[in-house]
Fold this protein.
Amino acid sequence: MNRNDWIADDISTSKEKYAQEARDRWGHTDAFKESTAKVDAYSTEDMADIRVAQQELFEEFAHYVGTDAGDRRVQELVIKWQKHITDNFYECTDEILQGLGRMYIADTRFTENIDRFGVGAAKLMSDAIEYYCLSKA
């Protein structure tokens, strides 16, 4: 199985597994509608590229586990992460970003997924996002 086929299969499985939960929780929001429209328009190759970019960002966060959440390099990753979400899925406001950061450690599915790239990466992302959002308030 080539890279694009593997990623497409992984995305398809995730969509099927969590689609109803996502619709129930966020289906009424503009962000959900925007994300659905964007994702539906992507080719398999587009989604593969987006997934690889996402994984690279998780790897970068994992690289900085043990670093202070307010460290300039970690904060730059938060900005990249917010831009990645906005560019590829929906307008990721600071409020949405802060909610995502909290979810990364509150929901073990997110924690386990992010921590595949390095134990503690989800906690660092969450803490760094919180720092970022509170420092702008």
Summary: Residues 11 and 17 are 10 Å apart (CA to CA). The chain has one domain: 3-136. The radius of gyration is 15 Å.
